[in-house]
Amino acid sequence: MFNSEIGRKFAAIVCTALFSALCVAGAVGPATGVNDATVVKAARLTA
Asked: Rounded CA gap, 15 and 22, in Å?
């Protein structure tokens, strides 16, 4: 697909950056999600 060394390096860099961004988004996304149902449920149990 790529005939030049520069093209191969560019493709490798782009793929690495994209994969890294997706890994970070996959790890951070669920951690920042707020589940209000569990907060309400915990409040009922303690009240």
From this structure: 11
